[in-house]
Amino acid sequence: MIAPRRFLPSISSLLALEAVDRLGSASAAAAELSLTQSAISRQLKTMEDQLGVQLIERSQMRLHLTPAAKDYVQTARSAVQELAQAALKLKANPAGGSLNLSILPAFGMHWLAPRLQDFARRHPEVTVNLGTRLKPFDFASEPFDAAIHFGQQEWAGVHYLPIMREEVLPVCAPMSTAADFGSLDTLHSAPLLHLDSRPDAWERWFEMQGQRVTGLQGMLFDQFSTMIQATIHGLGVALLPSYLVQDDLRAGRLVQAWHGPGVSLGSYYLVWPNDRTTPEPLRSFRSWIDSQLKTGASL
């Protein structure tokens, strides 16, 4: 339920208050908003009369926000920004809604991006806006409707749609030659490359091969793309998702450094908050993802 009208100041008054707080004077606020200084003062006086609370301390022709008004303007600024963003979304897609989706860079580029044209063809009424987040976040404080998540089902407060189980392979450049790693001990001693969002990946991989190791060190990367290039150029051995290195293995740019049992460190999921109504664009996207999985669309 929307609050009573008497508690809702006009947009003009909110903009005036926000500008005075940010710029420090009524004259600067007037210049930014293309108003006169007296018009700014009237907007602020109207808001004070409407709310019945003093917002401005007036002294020597200068305006200062009261402590309570400074708290209030933070909320007002966020609300005005959300309205502006909603207007931009409406302008970008006047025929339908938008879906704000958080993605993981490698998965987004190699799995999702090649398929999005099909979604756009089937759902021209939905605009998909993509942003990158590497770790779980609070949906209440981020501008996303859903996210692509990797790992286990440990993200609290969300629904899960499984997309794909990921298998990882230890790979290196041909110049390193897989023959150099004839045992897990020699592989353990090699320069190992690490992803900062999966700091224990190598330890878990070695454990699944039957060898417990701790304290592994080596170069650290924040993206699979840069790790792959570093591996191709011989900087070390990387533990990489098989779907990301298929082409490099076929082309001979990379070779497997170990041919033990396949290992999965987690799966990819579409997740969305379970404490709010699912918007129609997300329903369409979720159904489309499900259809991609059922038809077995290849990577």
Question: Can you walk me through this structure?
Answer:
The protein has 299 residues and is α/β, with parallel strands linked by helices. The chain is 43% helix and 22% strand. It contains 10 helices and 11 strands. A hairpin with a 2-residue loop joins strand 1 and strand 2 (62-65). Helix 1 crosses helix 3 and helix 2 (26-33) crosses helix 3. The longest helix is centred in the first third of the chain and has 26 residues, at 67-92.
Integer average pLDDT: 88
Q: Level of helix content?
A: 40-55%
Shape: elongated
The major sheet is characterized as: 9 strands, mixed
Are there runs of 5+ residues with pLDDT below 50, and where? none
Order of helices and strands: HHHEEHEHEEEHEHEHEHEEH
Radius of gyration from the CA trace? Answer: 27 Å
Q: In what range is the share of β-strand residues?
A: 15-25%
- What is the overall number of helices? 10
Q: Structural class, from helix and strand content?
A: alpha/beta
Q: What is the terminal separation in angstroms?
A: 46 Å
Q: Please count the beta strands (DSSP E, at least 2 residues each).
A: 11
What descriptive keywords fit this protein?
single chain, 299 residues, alpha/beta, nine-stranded mixed sheet, two-stranded antiparallel sheet, 43% helix
Record the SSE blueprint.
Layout: H1 11-23, H2 26-33, H3 37-51, E1 56-59, E2 62-65, H4 67-92, E3 98-103, H5 105-122, E4 127-132, E5 146-151, E6 158-172, H6 184-189, E7 192-195, H7 201-208, E8 220-221, H8 224-232, E9 237-241, H9 242-251, E10 255-256, E11 263-273, H10 280-294
Parallel strand pairs: 3-4, 3-5, 7-8, 7-9
Antiparallel strand pairs: 1-2, 5-11, 6-9, 6-10, 6-11
